[in-house]
Amino acid sequence: MTTMTPADKVERHDCPKCQAPAGSPCRTAAGKVAASYHTGRFTLVPALKAELTVKTPADRSPGKPWTATEGSLPASEPVRGAAIRLGYARCSTVGQELQSQLDLLARADCTRVFSEKISTRVKERPELDKALTLAREIRTAAPGQPVILTVVEMKRLARSAAELMTLSSTLQADGIQLELLSGPLQGVYDPNGAGAIVFAVLAVSAEVEREGIREKTLEGLETAARKGNHGGRPTVVDDDKLAVARARHAKGESVTAIAKALGVSRATLYRHLGE
């Protein structure tokens, strides 16, 4: 009895992406033999669905012109197995660290983790888009296979109700579940089932949290202003410079000459004289 290689097991199925028939390797858009099999194809094999990478053997001649061959083994029916978890980690600034999130996602048995350092104010998040694209490919190749997008906490995905509801619609349309590893709503939620209610709660929670942060920031600025501490860059025209500028301007000297002597711009000097 011969032992089947991962490539043999993969080639028992047609490829839903490049339409390579059973018994043949995947091919590229240029018609060459692909260096590795497409994810959507080998997720059909229960024993390989968590690998996310199966290379094309050397005897398939990767990079050479593709030709169809007749499959020798019938494809087995795909078996619904344990859920595939795709992790996503994000922090806002370069100074923040991602490792704590990555450690939690690793302990959650995530098959693959996407991470990026980018603010939630940025509309497009490339790594999140990659995670959702891979989840869609797996769902397309194996419709019965559960796929879960796992994050440490909800604010790693969105900070406003609008963003979260948009993401919820995406997950609902693609049949992707969401898992939160921490927080009051920790657990796995199916947006097409009872979890749809939880998504609404998450949206409200995100909006309340964002408004709370905004109010605290405004209160802090107001308190500092009452104490004489004003944020922003220090002014370039202090009281002494302003007094000199007004005296010289009253004598008929031009604003251009005064601004040059004081080392400030004409616009800045005009603004202070107007005040």
UniProtKB/TrEMBL annotation:
Q: Where is this region: Disordered?
A: 55-74
Q: Which UniProt keywords apply?
A: DNA recombination, DNA-binding
Native species of this protein? Answer: Streptomyces blastmyceticus
The residue ranges of the Resolvase/invertase-type recombinase catalytic domain are 84-228
Q: Please, which domain of life does this record's source organism belong to?
A: Bacteria
Q: Which SMART domains match?
A: Resolvase
Q: Which family does it belong to?
A: Belongs to the site-specific recombinase resolvase family.
InterPro entries given for it?
A: Homeodomain-like_sf, Phage_Znf_bind_put, Resolv_N, Resolvase-like_N_sf, Resolvase_HTH_dom, SSR_resolvase
Q: Which Pfam families match?
A: HTH_7, Phage_zn_bind_8, Resolvase
What protein am I looking at?
Answer: Resolvase/invertase-type recombinase catalytic domain-containing protein
